[in-house]
User: Fold these one by one.
Assistant:
Number 1:
Amino acid sequence: NLMKKLISDCDAVVNFAAQSFVDRSISDANPFLESNVKGVFTLLEILRFTKKRLVHISTDEVFGSLKSESANENYKFNPSSPYAATKASAELLINSYVVTYDCDCVITRCTNNYGPRQFPEKLIPKTITLANKRKKIPVYGNGKNIRDWIFVDDHCDAITKILMKGKSWQSYNVSANNELDNLTIIKKILSVMGKSADLIEFVEDRPGHDFRYSLDSSKIKKQLGWSVKTDFENGLEKTIRWYLSHSDWWKNLSKKILNATPWKN
């Protein structure tokens, strides 16, 4: 009833709500099923009667690990983690409501976000907060896993364009073409912060750790006129400055959040 009331008062729904930390999905997938699948089902059951637009925020992880190619919107699903499987399931559920009930739904898939206010369980803020405390920074495996990084403001701009101009029953990939391996990211952060690389500590790799994600975002660029405005170096410096000037926001985090192998928690 609360969800119905909230949706009745809005023009459209942009669904960011999700459990998103892959490591935790390995130790307990149930919250991910509840939020990422059942939560989407709850939204769809309301929206099929109201006919309001849904923009659903998905992920590049639905396509699994890629060798050298970049996945376009029609690339086959191949999720590797419980988290990615729930996000792929949500997309399939949305598609079924589009076909069956003529719902106005659009899906956006994005690469790895970074920027101010990101919860410190994620790689970049975790590295910043640990380095600031002069604590060891865990690197999974050999640190060569590759991700494509996009500044949060650029992602928000893409979502706004999709909400306002995106075609119904379509999906749009969003990426910034900043493919970097995890070890390089960590070294860049330490360099900007003036910290020693001796803080780096190699730990065992995460189970099922995908090697590389990459998206082809030519569709949103051509159809909606979206483009990246923040280069990685500037975005990273902005992010580091924000965390260092807002230590009150993260200083009381529990050790569990900053654990070197959180999938074991």
Note: The first strand starts at residue 12 and ends at 15.
Number 2:
Amino acid sequence: MQVKPLELGTKELMDIYYLMRLGRAIEDRLNLLYKGGKLPGAIYLGTGQEAIEIGASYALEEGDVLAPTHRDMMSQLPRGITPREVFLQHYARANSLTHGKGEDNYQGDLRRGTFATVSMLPNFYPVAAGAALAFKLRKEPRVAMAYCGEGATSVGDWHEALNVASVHNLPVVFVVINNGYAYSTPVYKEMKVANVADRAVAYAMPGVIVDGNDVVECYREAKKAVERARDGGGPTLIEAKTMRMRGHAGHDSATYVAKDIIDLWTKRDPIVRFEAYLNEKGFLNEDSKKEVIDRINAMVEDAVTFAEASPYPEPKEAIEDVYAE
């Protein structure tokens, strides 16, 4: 197995930039479609979280598994999900990954090692721990990674998953995206600890805090944790401090967030910061940036057109693929 390096080269950096831009473009278009009444379901956007969404999952290798939440569509991009698949899902078409049974981001693809998202948070933490236990019992050099928000760390399942992973020294990486709000509840009303990562000490595992808007740092720390887990070092808890730049869902205008907070985090836009980094390194200029954006815009346009032209599922399909065979 070819393992990605800890320090990324030009190809990997530009690949990550492309994925961040692609994620932003897809979500911007989903937002417009939702506001225009074109989508039958809800949207849960991770705008502003591109660095941790993509940076952490990019650290995984083929054969590893990812357990994302409803807001983590962008974490699936490094795993191979396509713009067409994203829009087919949101349009609830028969040829979507859920065959029209879903109309939001509750999708996954086990062929790519991505679990389908569930609503109950953080239920995928125990699932990821279970996958990691299976890897260990089979003596397979594979790693599981699970995402959740800081609000979900108040749920018992979260603590149980960390405890089991610690006791059994499982190859799993737990990523907490601390975006400031659990729906409309600010962090200071959620917990007394200064950092979610401080809770790692209770489970005798490393607790790492990263700048959730610095994709290079997010990747580097995630890669360390992934390879530590693969080498038998056990689980790691990563807390990414960032900001959700849209409401909890498409219907939420997030008026509970003060304007000065939004202004502060707008200046920390992860894509703008990464562009400055790439420009300083000589990897990106205005021409190459335009080329990437134009290519992505064409892909998104194609995906929307394809989804809108695709058929709805037949009624009989409602009872198909409900149970595993």
Note: Strands lie at 65-67, 144-149, 172-178, 181-182, 185-186, 207-211, 236-241.
Number 3:
Amino acid sequence: MSDSPINEVISLQLPPVIHLEDLPDDILNKIFHYLCFDEPLVDSKDNVKVLLNNPPYSYIQNKPKAYDDLLSLSSTCTFLRKKLGPRLFHSLSLIRSNQVDAILATPKSQELFSDKKTIQRHFLKELIGSNIESCGKAELARLSFRTHINGDKSFKSRYQQSLMISRFISYLECDNTLLRGDGLQLFPRLTALRVLDMGSNEQFSGDYNLSKLTFLAINAKTLINTPQLLSAIPYLKRLDLFLDYGNLPYEVGIAPIINQFRIATRLTELVLFLNNSYTIGYTGTIELLQAVDNNSKEFKKLTIRSKRRKSESTVDQSHWQLYNGCVGEILLPIFQSLTELILDIPILDSMKFESETYCLPTTMDNSQNLRTKTITLVDQAVVGPTISSNSRENIGVVIRHCQFTNLSFQYGESIEESHIHVLKLLTDFVQWLGNGRMDKDQNYTGIRHISLEKCWSMTDDSLVREYISDLIAAKNSEILKNIYPWMSSLYNSPRYKDTDSYNVTYVKETGVAIMDSRGYFIGLSDSEIDKAVFTTVDKKSGVRCVNLSFWSGESSLIDFEQYSNQQRKSLLWG
């Protein structure tokens, strides 16, 4: 009967059935990538600019475009669950439901979205724990004829071995409680860990393996007391370290962390947050930076920032030892090996150099052949159109001797419409670098690109705060999940959190006006100088540009200030 002509006709008319899981992996990956991470639409008709990329290692909610549909699809079979799991459940915070509390700097007693006890109970006990128990019982019932499995503590169901949500999470935010015991064993795919909690004197020991970890953000006090995390330092690509000397016992200091950098490490980026700008001169800070530079061959990016929110110190900082000498002379060789450096202006002001260093000639053969290196300066409150002589000289030393080619300036607006003042400040500084000294060998013409971005503004920040408050009042949780520190509002000034960029070229010129220290005209110079010419870099229509490296560190600093800062119990005394 199978050889009848009728069956042959039917078999020819019915096309072969191709299931989704039968497709090759590369085609499946392209389909899922398009559904999850398609490029955002750029539409400038509503005057709303779109940010195409997010800062690295920042907390982004699990919300692809077709999240609900993909979640349902992942529940149809184990194959699709394993394929879609890393895309649907890549990040998890056991601390907060969004970043609003950190952005608004909400006092702990008034936090609305950081109920970590409820979040942890819901995820660890009600979701993971109950599923492990029920799936384990079901599988044991199915395998009940194998008597040796009953009572076996090492037994794991198929759900626990391969289908559990936590097995797909690569970015995790937690507090100190998860560092003890075996809680982190639930996350075998973990590559990024952010511990948002105050430093603790408790010794944290647990049974977990963090061999895949490449990013760690943690309070230095907690890191010192967690052997498993200390042993993971040599394998990290980036370390965000909150170094609060006001709450760190000076008997031990940060020696355990420094010792981990005495051996070869894979670190490429260090983001260091200090409790005060002057602690850059502590011997512990200097030894840490030296150890990282000496034993991390791929170390190329360094951020040094200081916290802004006031805190309560629990130890006497007078016991910490200051470096006996010029701090800048020790740090300058470290800066020279970097391709990207981010510094607060107050930290740079705390550095001192030898008098001879300010006058050393610039060793630069050809500015066109310089390797691209970026320095980002951060000043939260620009007070005028000029830069102080101390700051100017220190910045000049760092830029000339490290031969940076790109100069970025992240600033805060202290007066209305200060953007023109800041632009003048930046362009005048570049002109001074190129021709500000009588000895031409001390001038530097290697700057090829400058950018400035208004990151803080009393007016604009108030509008954002009002916008967020309206969303909270309306209980619009979906929009609140998409609010980030680098977010700008439709009603803000156009330059708020949007970078203006300029290319820099140099031309020979004579007859330049000479001014005295008070800004009065003295005369014209007959000598030839290299005058910097600035050309605006055209912006792509509908696209917003921000300094992603800066905002990656800034969002981390905001989180530490909110959750790891020893907040004072009373604000009555300032």
Note: The longest helix spans residues 116-142.
Number 4:
Amino acid sequence: MRQRYRRRHSTVRSRPRQAFTAALTTAALLLAGCSSANIPDSRTEIVMWNHAAGNPEELATISEVIDAFNASQDQYFVRQEAFPQLVYGDAITAAALTGDLPCIVDIDGPIVPNWAWAELLRPLEISQETLDQMLPSTLGEYQDETYSVGYYDVALGIHARQSVLERYGIRIPSIEEPWSGEEFDAALETIAAGGEFRYPLDLGTGIADGEWWSYAYSPFLQSFGGDQIDRDTYLTAEGALNGPEAVAFGEWFQSLFTRGLVSREGNPARPEFFDGSVALSWQGSWEALKAYEEWGDDMLQLPPPDFGAGPVIGGASWQWGVSTSCEDPAGAFEYLEFTLQPQYLARFSEELGVIPATQAATELTPQFSEDGQLRPAVDLSREFAMVRPQTPAYQVISSVFEKTLKDIMHGADVEAVLNRAVRDIDTNIRSNDGYGF
């Protein structure tokens, strides 16, 4: 995550190839210095693309793991091409349209079902024993097949300061006893009445578009008892997104702004919790270390509230898959299985501040281990993570959901816009013959 979310398109196959030419050219120019060389003649080359060119810690860790794999055997040689994230999405989609995907691709978890439906990814040929050790949210699935695997996940929670809650007489919630929706609302109203903070709560509404709106706010909908789609069939959003529970969520969400508890705007960089202008922040675990540096032992990572159907946070981050274009899938799968060893998963967690994908890796990562400072993120992920709907329609669902919530935030009739959202999602599903469901 780390602000990694950006708008995706409704299906991989829907956008004209010409639209990607400039982005692909730019990406190619930026690859200098980001790929391995000197491939031994006797080895089979396995090409990998990733979006880590703008993240030196992640790029260095990927390179370290590649070097370890290349040194561990003499049959395959993995070569990476690292793109800046701003052009990666367009570049990889252009390659998909032309049938030129590399063997190994780096993909954001929610779009995996779309790629699987479009027959761009192969089902993983990795031992079931290995997959069984992974956090469920790190596996990308479609139609009961696993198509991708991630090295880590992240967790949303409420960042707060103990001294503030104690000053206002607000109970500190726990995973075992989170705030109820009523308690959460009362806490916000109490803090607002104190006049100490510009707003009681920062929700990140200044993040203008992209996956954040679905990732961050659909868990509230699900905690109310609604959802973005009927997960029993994946053929309609009727009832899930416009039923009584969804309407209650929408009315509550709208009230946060009409009551002045949350800003309709805000800085996309989200400095408010760090500069003390908000009391609480709905924030990702990737910012927790920075918050501890700012507030020390006063910093708390709190669970989400329970609005009636249980606390929920979003699950799934970036993952790895093997393309159907790959001419040597055995080598690609051998590499992926190699990278899932605990010591390598732990390295990603140490460098990126993300939740290790397995228990064995967690035990090797001090900050996430039983007494580690970031341990609450592990527990939040294990207890409350729900993956976003695993359907090829998800890109449309996410886009429609974002527009709907923005309209609700700005005062639209809740029932009307939820009904419109259902119509838009269902129309897309019908036009694609149910996406295989």
Note: Residues 1-36 have pLDDT under 50 and may be disordered.
